[in-house]
Design brief:
This protein is α/β, with parallel strands linked by helices. It folds into three domains: about 110 residues, Cobalt-precorrin-4 Transmethylase, domain 1 (3-Layer(aba) Sandwich), CATH 3.40.1010.10; about 110 residues, Tetrapyrrole methylase, C-terminal domain (Methyltransferase, Cobalt-precorrin-4 Transmethylase, Domain 2, 2-Layer Sandwich); about 45 residues. About 40% of the residues lie in helices and about 20% in strands.
Amino acid sequence: MISDPRLQAGTLYIVATPIGNLADLTERAKQVLTSVDVIACEDTRHTQKLLQHLGLRKPLLSVHEHNERERVEQVTSHLQSGQTMALVSDAGTPLISDPGYPLVAALRERGVSITPVPGVSAIITALSAAGLPTDRFTFEGFLPHKSGGKREKLDALTQEPRTMVFYESKHRILDTLECMAQAFGAERQACVARELTKTFETFYHGTLPDILARISADEDQQKGEFVVMITGNTNPAPSSEVDTDKLFRLLLAELPPKKAAAVISDLTGENKKELYQKALEIQGKA
């Protein structure tokens, strides 16, 4: 065990916990969880199992997405009385696609001392073994549940040059991969990580259609938690082209094609006649 971390009174410790393999809990995290007065957690039942594994009994305070704003005063009271607290999520690093942001933001505004205790994060764990470019990446979290919102979000990312990272659940993984294949095309390289650090950890590499076919073929591979990583667009359209398309759609909702083309021509310097033809194509009138 490491030496006594000497916790500071009135401090909230943001503690990363394992995403599957309990052996991944750091020595510092164990010491902090052992020493704090109260543990704020996403699900008390889930955290209780972790504490039982560590042989600990601690007061638990539920702090999840539906109540964390109401918990601000209670957490502040604990800390201002000189107690120490830990904030944990069900798995991984708190606040990363997990509850905690409103609470931590409010405590920061009040000048409360907050200290991170780093550890496992599914994003970094997946990227480290994906074999995709990791010098630059963007984390997109969970996509909208409804297909329309999902497609709209993916369409907006088709020009993204960085590797994209998404979380997905077993209930939506097939639909999401199908939407991704439609949005990014049949040749875009990807990697899907399933059940990271757990017994049935699996990585799928290849194109999106290929990965979709392999997961679709085995119901057992559709279970668990997923991290989907997709290479960025290696040849994105110039920003002016993308902006022009978006601008056209906005203007055509209010103006006739000829007027919309004239406005964009004045803004960009592009040929007015060519823009007019483009406007007609967008409207499906060419």
